[in-house]
Amino acid sequence: MNRPLTICASLTILALAACGNPEAPGHIAEDDGAPRVATVQAPDGLTLTYETRGTGDTTVLLIHCWTCDREFWREQVDALAQDYRVVTLDLGGHGESPGERESWRVLDYGADVQAVADALELQRVVLVGHSMGGPVALEAARRLGQRALGVICVDTLHDADFEFPEEMAQQWIAGLEQDFEAAMAEAMGGMAASGIDPAVRDWIVQRAIAASPEMAVGLMRDFLTLDLPQMFRDAGAPIRCVNAAPPAVPPTNVEGNRRYADYDAVILEGVGHFIQLERPEEFNAQLREFVAGFESDSR
């Protein structure tokens, strides 16, 4: 694995089809089986776009990764909506939630998620976060309190005690600043499994290179400041992960993470970073198992 890819893959430890017209902010029409798109304002005034489908007492709220958008859950939403209310959103600066912020911070995305949950008056929520969405889900769980039944993370939160070498991180950031498109194409394309459909790999890369460089670099710098042990503690909800096996990423430190939270992980062989797109049926079955466990424990 080359150096830029090694850096990007390791950083996942720290972080790492809209239909119809947007309706009035915070309003979702009665469900008729079709996706519903709406907007709500984040605390800083940035307009967030989110989408809902399905019904149920439990909501599965899907949080995308760095430089991605809600379309990265395209293989999950319809399958889950058969039994649950499913919500996806574009975090600030991503997808259909463009705009600028005074600074780009992972913790602020927890407020984005809370804004959507509040607009929909969600009371029983399972937060699912891919890559950067993992730490975001932890912060959202802290904010939602007892409304959060649990957190499910996808190829992230491998080791709460991991400290990324500062020099390597700065080299990766410098590469983004020097040639954003080239750095992103190499990193994001290389993080998928070698056997992934080339069309899917190209789609991932094109989504990533279309992101705002300022936002992407700002978030990457912020990743290095996260206090993951404290975020694990503060989440106040059980944490479950579906992670790739080494050498795609460093090992998942299950026992170490259990010092900070109710934590467990399922490790999949032969997958890359985008597990939900690479092996969707297997991933969806595991996701359902975790959600059902949270529901059972909450009764």
Describe the structure.
With 299 residues, the chain is an alpha/beta fold. The protein has a single domain, classed as 3-Layer(aba) Sandwich (Rossmann fold), CATH 3.40.50.1820. 40% of the residues lie in helices and 16% in strands. The protein has twelve helices and eight strands. Helix 3 packs across helix 4, helix 5 crosses helix 6 and helix 5 packs antiparallel against helix 8. The N terminus is likely disordered.
Could you list some keywords that capture this structure?
single chain; 299 residues; 12 helices
Structural class: alpha/beta
The largest sheet, given as strand count, sense and whether it forms a barrel, is: 8 strands, mixed
- Sequence of strands across the biggest β-sheet: 1-2-4-3-5-6-7-8
Strand elements, count: 8
Q: What does the oligomeric state look like here?
A: single chain
At CATH level 2, the architecture is: 3-Layer(aba) Sandwich
The total tally of domains equals 1
CATH overall fold name:
Rossmann fold
Q: State the helicity in percent bands.
A: 40-55%
> CATH top level?
Alpha Beta
The CATH superfamily is identified as: Alpha/Beta hydrolase fold, catalytic domain
| Model regions low in confidence, pLDDT < 50 over at least 5 residues | 1-30
- Termini separation comes to 46 Å
If you average the pLDDT, what whole number results?
Answer: 89
Cα-atom radius of gyration: 18 Å
Global outline: globular
> What letter string, H or E per element, gives the SSE order?
HEEEHEHEHEHHHHHEHEHH
